[in-house]
Amino acid sequence: MERRSFVKMLGAAGVAAVAAPAVIRKASAQDKPTIALIPGLTADGFYVTMHHGAEAAAKAVGAELIYQGAAEWNVSLQVPILEAVIAKKPNAIMIAPTDKQQLIAPLKKAHDAGIAVICVDTFIGNGVFQTGSGDADFPISYIASDNLLGGRMAARALAKAIGEKGKVYVSNVKPGVSTTDQREEGFKEEMKNYKDIEVLETQFNDDDANKAAAQFQAVLGRAPDLAGVFGANLFSAGGTANGAKQAGVTGKVKLAGFDAPESIVPQLKDGTFELTIAQHPAEIGYFGFIAAYAHVTDNPVPTAIGTGFTVMTGANIDDPNVSRFLYKSS
Q1: Which residues contact residue 38 at a Cβ distance below 8 angstroms, ignoring those fewer than 6 apart?
Q2: What string of H, E and C letters represents the secondary structure of the chain?
Q3: Judging by DSSP bridges, how do beta strands 34-38 and 92-95 pair with one another?
Q4: What pLDDT, on the 0 to 100 scale, is given for residue 40?
Q5: Contact at 8 Å (CB) between 257 and 326?
Q6: Model confidence over 202-249: pLDDT tens digits?
């Protein structure tokens, strides 16, 4: 079932919905479902905004939301939190897995305990669920941005900004993170359409902005004609921007970011960033919760729901239809 059909079925126009969808059987007070949300990390506006979306959905349907996560993106920190949440015996767990392989076994424990698992933002295995094959097939649904498309969008916009010629590279977190893997893949695939653009080796920064800044300066030293960089997540983009500032090339080397904290507004306006790709995390949280609620109240849900993007630039960031997709800090 397509996302559009699912939304129509729910009768929900977005995170502002204020009534329970008619098609979903409302749980009684005695069996009110409990649904947990475990983010990739709590100290990130993306997941703060996702939490707001899940809260709106919980209020709309009258279900209980548990929100618990680690302050850092780290498998060794997320797994104990997952185990603690499993011990609370919620009806369903929404989770942004911090590794697509290492979280399979811990999440299988939840599934084996009768807890429905839904992946939000990131996924386990290959992200294709309920096919009857593979050891990571058990999640009910995957709700997220189309990260391949997001990478392609960043590539097209960056190519235009550099006049479709020059050297670029991707600043990324580390291999094995489903979302950023796909953004890099989409970016590189799209850049193949520009014969005068050379894509240099990806720089992996382990989600460390300081490391991303140092890597930018190292690449610039090797390639002083560097034209642009794509930061595949918040810390990669922010660290790269700091590196450009320290090297005195802000605005000269064009930067495309991914994700949209409120703090990026002045950086778009002053030319630090040419653009950033904003996801819609509130929608991810909202539709993820609704999908979980639908499942635990014996209603069918699609195995995948895609949410959209908004391209933000210095020229459009004051437009309310654009700025409303900035991530909340609290």
Answers
A1: 68, 69, 78, 81, 82, 85, 93, 94, 95, 96
A2: CCHHHHHHHHCCCCCCCCCCCCCCCCCCHHHCCEEEEECCCCCCHHHHHHHHHHHHHHHHHCCEEEECCCCCCCHHHHHHHHHHHHHCCCCEEEECCCCCCCCHHHHHHHHHCCCEEEEECCCCCCCCCCCCCCCCCCCCEEEEECHHHHHHHHHHHHHHHCCCCEEEEEEECCCCCHHHHHHHHHHHHHHCCCCCEEECCCEECCCCHHHHHHHHHHHHHHCCCEEEEEECCHHHHHHHHHHHHHHCCECCEEEEEECCEHHHHHHHHCCCCCEEEEECHHHHHHHHHHHHHHHHCCCCCCCEEEECEEEECCCCCCCHHHHCCCECCC
A3: parallel
A4: 95
A5: no
A6: 999 998 999 999 999 999 999 999 999 999 998 999 999 999 999 999
CB-based contact 257:40 (threshold 8 Å): no
What is the residue-averaged pLDDT of the chain?
A: 90
Segment 189-193 mean pLDDT: 98
Q: Which residues contact 307 (CB under 8 A, 6 or more apart)?
A: 3, 143, 144, 145, 279, 280, 283, 284, 287
In one-letter notation, the amino acid at residue 78 is Q
Please report the pLDDT score of residue 320 as a whole number: 96
Model confidence pLDDT, tens digit, residues 30-49: 478 999 999 999 988 999 99
Amino acid at 197: I
Q: What is the pLDDT of residue 176?
A: 85
Residue 258 in tokens? 């991914």
pTM of the model: 0.81
